[in-house]
Design goal:
This protein is mainly alpha-helical. It has four helices and no strands. It starts with a helix and ends with a helix.
Length: 145
């Protein structure tokens, strides 16, 4: 089995777990922080979550490109392209919606910005979850069993 495929699946599954934790745990707790500590909490969240996701997200991107360049045996190219599209969706949503929302919340809690962050983050959550299913399917297809 391809090491690239295994690393791709592992990074995708890791990121899927992280995004569900953010969606169901971290983001819903933002309103409970309170005004006095909100700006510091946002800065801490951004710094800490970046440290958690930067390496696996980079690995996911690099391995997606590598899989497109050299598809593993028994893995349909269509699945690899599906993985590539699903890898790009969270990037696009992050750039277009999440980063601007985090910047706005960095100045203080705003309920409408928070609601927009929660809503648009579902796009990343669904994309990573679908990507996890595709990556798992690719692993199964590449398996010699």
């Amino acid at each position: 089995m391809s090491l690239v495929l295994v690393v791709h699946a592992a990074s995708t599954l890791f990121l899927t777990g992280v995004i569900w934790t953010i969606q169901l745990v971290h983001y819903p707790l933002f309103p409970r922080v309170g005004p006095a500590g909100f700006t510091a909490a946002m800065a801490d969240h951004s710094r800490r979550i970046t440290a958690v996701i930067v390496a696996p997200w980079a690995l996911q991107g690099l391995t997606t490109a590598a899989l497109l360049a050299q598809p593993p045996a028994r893995v349909p190219v269509g699945l690899i392209w599906a993985a590539a599209v699903l890898a790009l969706l969270p990037v696009a949503v992050t750039i277009a919606a999440s980063v601007p929302a985090h910047r706005a919340l960095g100045g203080g809690f705003d309920a409408s910005v928070h609601a927009r962050l929660l809503a648009t983050n579902w796009l990343r959550t669904v994309a990573w979850t679908a990507h996890a299913a595709v990556a798992s399917s690719m692993l199964l297809r590449a398996s010699p069993l």
